[in-house]
Amino acid sequence: MTNSFEFDKYLDKNAFSMGHRSIEIPITRQNLFMMQRQFSVKDHIDFFPFDVLGAMNPSNNVDKNYRVRTIELHTDSGFAIETDIVEKTFVFRNRSMAKGSTRYMSEKNVKPGDIIVIEKITPYEYNMKLKRGDL
């Protein structure tokens, strides 16, 4: 029996794309200074798997009905960031100066007007690069 609606023609050929392969996050003054050189992925949370959202306090992850996983962000600075996403602030948890987003923001000297581009490789692996803004 064939499917008369032909669902196959609506399927995305890249099973991991969720409709888009990359996102662009504009950096504002508030991102850089109010959130300790962080940027929020709140407007793009559907780009990431649901199980990378962790509790504000990581010890509370045991209360979730799923195991919180991490993603790996390969940066254009030559190091990778392994992190989950904090569920209430929607920022990357790993903010360390050794191998976290704070190191990336500092090394790249990210400024308001710049754009962070995150490209999906697999559901749990991404490339992250900086696109300089005009401001």
Structure notes:
The chain has one domain (27-131): At1g16640 B3 domain (Beta Barrel), CATH 2.40.330. 10% of the residues lie in helices and 24% in strands. The chain has helices at 29-34, 101-107; strands at residues 22-26, 53-54, 71-75, 80-83, 85-86, 115-122, 125-131. A hairpin with a 4-residue loop joins strand 3 (71-75) and strand 4 (80-83). The longest helix is centred in the C-terminal third of the chain and has 7 residues, at 101-107.
Record keyword descriptors for this entry.
single chain, 135 residues, mainly beta, At1g16640 B3 domain, five-stranded mixed sheet, two-stranded parallel sheet, 7 strands, 24% strand, globular, disordered N terminus
- What is the number of helical segments per DSSP (H or I, 4+ residues)? 2
Helix/strand-derived category reads mainly beta
Structural domain tally = 1
Widest sheet, order of strands:
1-6-7-3-4
CATH architecture: Beta Barrel
The residue-averaged pLDDT reads 83
- Helix and strand element order: EHEEEEHEE
Q: Oligomeric status of the shown chains?
A: single chain
Q: Kindly, what is the distance between the CA atoms of the first and last residues, rounded to a whole number of angstroms? A: 59 Å
How many β-strands, per DSSP? 7
CATH class: Mainly Beta
Q: Unreliable segments (pLDDT under 50, ≥5 consecutive)?
A: 1-18
The major β-sheet equals: 5 strands, mixed
CATH topology name: At1g16640 B3 domain
Q: How much β-strand is present in the residues?
A: 15-25%
